[in-house]
């Protein structure tokens, strides 16, 4: 039930926010804060007192596999078509749900002073997006998954289209079309899978566990896998399906960028893990060289494009694609190290990218521009903000001791055992990341000021609190990643990955 | 006392945290106290640990102490602990880092006194020392790599410390990116070690390799080459040496600490630490020696023509690290570490003295604007003289013992050692020439500007201590016997070789005296006339390597990025959208609202249908 509660709280919180705006436009953000804190509290309870929350390892439903489901919920929905409510969370889902709620709070911090117009509707969209994401991370019925996949799309569209910047309608439309087209492709693949399963077993079902042992010819399997792959690779995104991202990220309001980069991209990675790898292990293995190559290309190509940008937010957006290249590489190298590395990269990038978008958003809010040609020398003007920018840039470069390094190192360590050539190119990512990151610091914070900044304020207390929370998170991941790796391990075992050695 | 080991890197780290969290609000006095005090405390703890270590009973193979703090990473069959490893090598490094580091920190409290970024400076410095200690104490290559990247970051932050000048920022970025090229190579080396040996634990990996691989095995060659890539990047050896001279943009204590005494010698440490791999790959080990000789010669020639006091010292550093690489190349592991230590003493002394001169001259660094400073700055003169004597390896100075040992071992080594020796000897001549050119130009000749000596115990006492060690440091016996294998051949060169090795640096000094004191007109003419001018320019530009790298790497990358700023993949999607809009426009054009047009269209359509029916 706990998963239902998580979503219900956010869902109802959204409606309450709209109603509350009529009495006081400051009230919606307080309601959103309350809802998210409540969720966070519930999650902490699950984490530390699993027994009291009905989330116990002994409570698992046997599915004929190793690993454990910490929380499961099952009920009928449309039994005639084999569609049911199945929500479940293993270590992997749980980590991502915690990330979602945590970054939800961060985006709230970013929106706190920035969003003044139609705040009720804004927080409705924010909370409903998060509801959709939690649904995506926990739905174990394919139809249910698809519903949530769409649910998280629509409110995000509104966030970009209404509260975005100068080119918002173009960006929102692009985001919508890319996601919608790829989503439809996924729906076709899902239906194909369900029918293929129906033909061999005679049972019509969308149940993930039932479909796990579906049998079909290699050729059919390959096309179905490809459908899922394209859908998730668009969301991740990977080159050459990445073009919605720079526009959406740079046009969205700060809170939107935080959620997009921090959480929504991870639904693509999660889908690749849970469905592409989970349902089609052989087909994915055969496809791995292509996917790994795409990952390496993403790392290098978008790093180069990022280097050339003048728009700070656009630059960070491209670096996100570059980092997601490591995730792609890790998921398809598919051994213990690389998969754990992919998960760590997802979490760490969630923090570092979210923080960097907050930096960019904070600068835009203060200077009314995202153009780095009009910045420079900000270190002397806003030392706190500059320090935070430096810290998270350094994290994104992959400095050991911070989370991103653990992720990238494990990915490369694992993929090296699969393909030396691809890994050599991907390791080049360490160099190009340094190039684009340091140029940002130079153009924005170092050097002489390019303009009279006038009276700009440094970080507020709410912002400071958000940054410090994310800093501590990255240090924690960097120095004691074992705490997260242990949770993720059970989830990866659920996907049929042998976690005892590096080899499959 | 050994279990205090973890405190050695932790204390500087706490200093870093304290300075960072105070966010510049700490008054300079307190910041200096925290900054220098933490290193001093760390040095004291290191002494306690060192004494216990030296009294330890040897067990089995050598003497070593391992302290595991927690399991850092354990995934599948890979695991790495947050563990420190203390043996003779890391002990020596620990003493150099905390000891010399402390002196430099004390000096810096005076040097940076009036800088508005005083606390930020010590914040980065403390982080650097912590990272450097992790580098040398890490018991597995992953932890070593963490320190390795950490010192690189601090180097970046401190080179660009005066951030308002874009030139400093450029130098800092250059240093970081170029060393990162080496780091990427090193990372690949780590992956390969894990793949072939199943662990990144240094001792375990080396003993497995020793028992499983034949000398010259392909795996050992690949691993050593990749690690060498990391080492040449960090230690500024060919072909990745061009960043170090630019790194002089940072404050002078940084040049002394990071770019002379400690960080740039990390490459030497790495190779010495993984020496078993290099012994299994003799060809690569020989390559290390060749790189060392080539670098020491090239940097020696370049140092001859520089006019910035810090750049001369920078090229001299590159050149001296070349000697250490030469030593590694001929298997003289202990000599390499020995020279690393003596070099830390006298080069730190030279840099700090140079810092005092620069302060006295109101931030003038051009040696041709100095001259005759002997009388105005007597203290600096004596300090600089001692540093130069040790650098030139005059008998009984510390540099003499270490360099002599390296040359002797090069001479004694089989296959091609003679050539390496000759190169090293030429380098020794160049060292005498360039260091005394510097000394004569700065302190002798006619006086151009008045200068006033900087006084203060924090500016002078560290120099005196370093001077003492520069002279007497050669008598320190390093506890390295349990770390490295004993040389098969005892290096005792014949008498005439010994005489040559003592005489050659003196010849260099003599020539420097002749060219820059006695007949200054000759050196002036050399630098401005025909052939000499061309050579001068060639050496000055670091043999054109900056130009070459710019042409080969920087310009193409920038050009490619610029032409693809708008991401050509996007053109495909926008093109699709444009096509759809175009087709849409065509169709909507047919809807004109004129009845005649519709009747015409219906007619044509009918005609078409009928004709299809008839002809098909």
Largest interface: A-B, 58 and 52 residues
User: Major beta sheet of chain A, specifics?
Assistant: 2 strands, antiparallel
Overall geometry of chain A: globular
Mean pLDDT of chain A: 87
Mean pLDDT of chain B: 87
Strand content bin of chain B:
under 5%
Task: Describe the model.
Chain B: Its main location: membrane. Chain B: It is found in: Endomembrane system; Membrane. Chain B: Residues 72-122 form the NADH-Ubiquinone oxidoreductase (complex I) chain 5 N-terminal domain. The complex is a heterodimer of chains A (504) and B (616). Chain A is mainly alpha-helical. Chain A has a domain at 280-504. Chain A is 73% helix and 3% strand. Chain A has 19 helices and 2 strands. Chain A has helices at 2-23, 27-48, 91-111, 119-138, 142-163, 168-201, 208-212, 218-235, 244-251, 254-279, 281-307, 312-333, 336-367, 378-381, 383-397, 403-416, 420-444, 461-479, 482-494; strands at 71-78, 83-89. A two-stranded antiparallel sheet of chain A has the order 1-2. Chain B folds into 3 domains: 1-187 and 246-265, no CATH class; 284-528, no CATH class; 566-615. Chain B has helices at 7-21, 28-54, 88-111, 118-137, 141-159, 166-197, 202-212, 218-234, 243-246, 252-261, 266-273, 275-280, 282-305, 309-329, 333-360, 378-392, 398-412, 417-443, 457-472, 495-518, 520-528, 530-540, 545-563, 568-589, 595-615; strands spanning 65-75, 78-86. Chain B has a two-stranded antiparallel ribbon with strand order 1-2. Chain B is globular, with a radius of gyration of 30 Å.
